[in-house]
Structure formats: structure tokens, C-alpha cells
Write a structure and sequence with these properties.
- It contains 14 helices and 13 strands.
- It is of the alpha/beta class and about 425 residues long.
- The chain folds into 2 domains: about 250 residues, no CATH class; about 100 residues, no CATH class.
- Strands 1-2-5-10-9-8-12-13 form an 8-stranded mixed beta sheet, with helices on both faces. It has a 3-stranded antiparallel beta sheet with strand order 3-4-11, with no helix packed on it.
- The longest helix is centred in the C-terminal third of the chain and has 14 residues.
- The two termini are about 40 Å apart.
- The structure holds zinc ion.
- The site of zinc ion (ZN) has 8 residues, from helix 9.
Length: about 425
Amino acid sequence: MRVSWEVDGGVHHLTFRLDPEDEVTGFCADGEPLTLATNSCRIELPRASRDLHPDLPALAAWTVVAPWTRRAVVFDRPISPELAEAIRSGWAVEAGPVGAAPRSGAGPATDGLAISYSGGADSVAVAAMLPEAPFVHFQRVSHPRVPNRWTHYRADVLAGLAERTGRELTVVRSDLEFTLARPRPGYPEHHAVAAGALLLADELGLGGLAFGYELGSRWLGGDRYLLRFTPDNPMWAPHGAWGRAFAAAGVHLVLPVGGVSEAVTMRLALGSELRAQVRWCLRGVNGPCGTCGKCLYKELIQAAVERRPLRTTIGPGRPVARKWQEPPPYGGQEMIEYGCARVPGVEETVFGRAAAYLGATEVSTSWLDRCYPPAIEEIPERWRGRVRDFMTEEVGLMSDREARRVETWGTIRGTP
Ligand SMILES: [Zn+2]
């Protein structure tokens, strides 16, 4: 893989060329097969940036090209030995040329922490926890050479909501998701959402970037990943491949809500001053669409948190409700258990069958109301105290017995 950047004012153009051993179908760190659509993309920053440490554009490029790289990656400027070693040990890929001093040793200018802010409940919960941290928001824009068949995705609406938070904000516009043909446009690696933040890291003095990944994504193998306890999650563990690569570039991955469930992030988001700007739906304009799978899933969680019946017009025959008519396992199953155990009258809703399969109770799901302490311990020391204080005061920590529920997830009866 050969990678080159061209910079024109605030616009960074990335072009990459596959080597003979590289393949157009590769794999994301979570195992999802990904097919390449095109070999170029751009990242637009609001202004031209100063000289960047070369590890930053290199790592930004790596978040895009990693799935399709087999044996070697050649960047257009020398990188630090630390970043090269992280890529070698994390992916078994030779990275070079090597020859830059590490950025991580740069000192006081790299103390800052920004939030990779999407506007969903999880990132709003992070924002509530870190009221001083600036936001970097990724906005999808069209690619000049790839048709946009996802016009219902309203990235413009989400960027507008981020603007209305009144927080210090940088919106990064990029077409990098269109490098992906299959399964659909999206981040080649989940970390590509941070590509713009990496290019801004020197300007913002960042030593860390906070993400809204919660307990399920970090520890329970949420979503596309295998449903089991995953302390070594290659995407989000600090000692995982991506955690080491970001640390090598002096921008630590920070997961302030990595120890709490989506019920807790929902409660924190709806109780925060940014409540009016929370939006997990990618489709709605003047509010959530109410008909997509994300709206249905989050409605179950919100209804559970608010202790009220489900408000939805979606019936069990609709495609977005079909999976809840089948037996488990389900993606985000811990939250389906939590919701089914708490929503009054759930048996009469589209989740009725799932509720019967799972047989969850308030007692069996009470661990999801508290924070898993090891998630606090893995936050870099300079930010750990703030997260620990917030979790202790606002949420409460899991007992040893509750923590065991996290650590045996996927291996005990009632879970997949
Ligand atoms: Zn929706």
C-alpha cells in the first residue's frame, strides 16, 4: 500500500495505491468484510493547519487503508519508530519510511482532550462529563467519483445540531466513507471518524481524543463483533492494535463512558443541557424519523429509562422489527434485556417475543445501571480522576458481583 497526501489550504486529499498482494476486499478490525470502491478521498478542515507531525497524517491515512493492506504500507513522509512498531505489532504490516522523532514526547502542547462528537446519546453523555472539552464533528459529504445512494442520511442535520450546542466546535467534512463500496458507505475502520481530529491534533494541542463508545462496544463485543466479554477488544482496548497506534502518535483513545451501558448514557444525555441537541437517528430532519431500526432500538432504552410504555407505530411485520421476532442472540442484547425488563406492557409490543425468549428481570439487569470499574482504570492518568469522580457521584460503581456479570457475559445461561 502506498499512501500520499496533497494539501490545498484546509483540504487534505488522500490517494492510495494497492500493492500486488493487497486485495480490494479486506477486513475491518471487527472482522467485517469490506470492499473498496475508490482509492481517493478528501478531508476538509475549516482552515489550513500548521506543520503537522508526520505521524498524524500517517495515522489518519491508516484509519482508511488498513483493511486493504496485507504486508507493507509506505507513507509519503518518514514516521516515528513508535508508530511503525505499533502497526507492525498490531497488523503484521511493515510501515515506513521511519525517521521522525515521536510526537508523544512533545510536551505541554499535547495535554488537550477533545471529544469526537456525533450528537448521539453516548457522545452527549461524554460532553456532559467533560464540559470544557472542544468537539470535533465528522460530517459526511458526497464523493466526486462515487454516486451517493444514501441520500436519506442527513449528515447536514447532524452538523447543524452540533453547531447549536454552543460548544467549541470544529466540523470536519469528508467523503472518506465512499472509499467503501460494500456493505455500504461507512468508515473503513471505526477510527476513521477521527481522521480529521488527527489532522487537527497539533493545532488543538491534543494528547487524547474522547469517544462515546460505551460498555457494550468496549467490553461486551457489541454490534458486529462477537457477543462475549472482550477485554482485548482490538478496536477500543488501550493495549489493542488501535489503542497502541493512537498512543504512538500521542493521541490516546479515551472512553469516558466505556464502563456504563446505553441506559446510563441515555439518562445522562437526557438530563444534560444538550438534551435538545441529542439525535441518534441519521434520517430525520425536524426530529428523529421514528421508523428506522436505530429509532426503534433507542426508543426501547429511552422508554425503560423513563419508565413508560413504548411509543412507536412500528409493527412486528416491519423489516426493522423482524429480528426481534427471532430467538437471540441480538446485537446490543444487554440493552434489549434491560428494556424488556422495565418497559410496562412490553409483551404487547414488537419486543414481546424477545422479552419472552430472554426472560430478563430488573434484578438480573441491575448491573447495567452502574459503572464497570476497570473501564475507569484504563483511562490515561491525566484524565482518570475527573471520570472517576463523575462516575462515583452521578452513576455509582458496580460491586464485584455486578462486575462478574460483565466478565461472564456470553458464557452464562440467558446470554448468547
Ligand atoms: Zn430514525
